[in-house]
Design a protein that fits this description.
Layout (H helix, E strand, L loop, with lengths): L7 H17 L4 H34 L10
Length: about 70
């Protein structure tokens, strides 16, 4: 999936998989560090996506559109 941009849900599932593998405790130190680094990169990307979504929602709200939690 290197050619196509991964979706938010795909990256979130990948991060959850990394967390699960690390919690199992069966990895070497090197494997753990590699997965930790991958997980932190995913976390940063996911956080950026959420920030962008929140900013977009605020922009829509400022233009008079209703945010879902404000909808009847």
């Amino acid at each position: 999936m290197a050619a196509a941009k991964k979706t938010f849900d795909t990256r979130l599932a990948e991060l959850e998989g990394i967390i699960t593998r690390m919690e199992e405790g069966q990895l070497s130190l090197e494997e753990t560090l590699k997965l930790y680094e991958q997980g932190m990169k995913l976390h940063r990307t996911l956080a950026q996506d959420l920030d962008a979504a929140e900013k977009r929602m605020m922009e829509l709200t400022d233009t008079g559109l209703t945010v879902m939690e404000d909808a009847p």
